[in-house]
Amino acid sequence: MNQPHEESEEERVWRVLSEAGLIDIPPDEFAERIKEAKHVVIGRLGELLELTTDTQERESAAISLATLRKLERTVSRGGGQSSD
Amino acid sequence: MRSTAKQAAAGAKWPPEEGQIITFRSLNGLTEGIVKEVRWGLVWRDFVLDDGRVIPEHKVVDHPEPPVWRKAEEVTQEEREACEARLVSMAEAGLDPRDQEQPFWAELNQYLAYTYLKYKRAGVKPPGAE
Question: Of A6, B40, B51, B130, which has the fewest beta carbons less than 10 angstroms from its beta carbon?
Answer without folding.
Answer: B130
